[in-house]
Model the fold of this input.
Amino acid sequence: MALVQEGGCVGEKNVTRREFLSKGTLAASGAAIGATAGEGQAQDETGDFVQSDYSLRTRALVSVLTRKQLVDPATMDAVVDFYENRVGPHVGARVVARSWVDPDYRERLLADARAVARDDGIAGFQGTDLVAVENTPEVHNLVVCTLCSCYPWPLLGLAPAWYKDSAYRARAVADPRGVLREFGLELDDDIEVRVWDSTAEIRYLVVPERPSGTEGLSQEELAALVTRDSMVGAEKLNPPG
Amino acid sequence: MQGIHDLGGMDGFTLPERDQGPVLAQEWERQVWGLLFSLRVPGVTTGGRRAIEAIPPALYLAMPYYARWLYIQEQAVLASGLVTVEELANPDGALTMPAIADFEPARPEDFLAFVLQDASAELDENIPALFSVGDPVVVRNREPAGHTRVPRYVRGRRGIIAMDHGVHPFQDALPAGEERRLQHLYTVRFTGPELWGGQGHPSDRIHVDLWDDHLVAAD
Done:
């Protein structure tokens, strides 16, 4: 109930959906639009309330564009399938695992990741101009995009919410060690932390250190150990088991 | 531009947990993302990140990530005139069919051709670099009125050229009287104390990708 009343900070309680659309204040108006739904639908959880409004707005937009034959729903499905299934951390993990077992490949990857991605057939939108940076006992790398949310989609899929969060974008460049500590990784003072703020079209891939105790594993088994967040630099990889 | 999106170094935000669930967690998020690559209509320009940067600051901070992409798509279709406010307010009601000659919506194969292309931003141009790896530089404080790739936190700061990526399209809005020209893109390395004074860690190295026009030679 409280939220419905607080919706007044965006607009008056009985503002109509049409008024909001025309005022160009669509987004943060979630609570206020929700208020028009009536008292019976008041909710305590801000997240649920706002989320339900985004659902309504999305449904309206997609419905109108589809009915007008401006958008093909099959294309929308193909986009989602591509980003949910075809690209993802499994692609980057294969690159990392091979770099652990194939010194020539590793050397090429670190010298010219773009050429390697091209050879491997994994270059693509938001990942063609690739740079790979390696973690070592002396150096830890961390990738961020302070201005938006740039991320190597062909290798890692879409970025997780934490990567796009205001807090991560704000703090990763100013206090990377504090961020990593909160993420569960304590680094000694003499470790060099290299932060990469993706402000142009270059996309960065962190090559994490190979965990100990993995000497007998196959490349495929090694790839299964490589986590998404380790390839952004948000964590180190633990020995298996 | 001193935009709200330029978040590097801002205090007061609380770091979230590192979520490990699906990256498109909600159905509306999946639809918004699917639409972003399917909406290819003459006269409809979302403006991409530039449009997101233009979201009013209080709204920007209040919106989840995918809501920003929803917002700019709503604004784009309304601005095009192909969709009206009334239609979005009553999506199951009457609507006016747009008349665009020979229009076919983007097909799945169009999307796949776009997303899979090996499309480097690097331009095949023989333009000399103004700087070499190892050169000390200072970031110019240009303050273009509009889009810029120079985060506030490096303006006026001193760094070292760490990489030369060749010639890349310059992405900033241009100050009055300045012409767009071909130029090199670099990765510039800064120390923690250079950027954050006593709060900066001496073993931190922060890297930012910047172009020739962003930089001047330092002593």
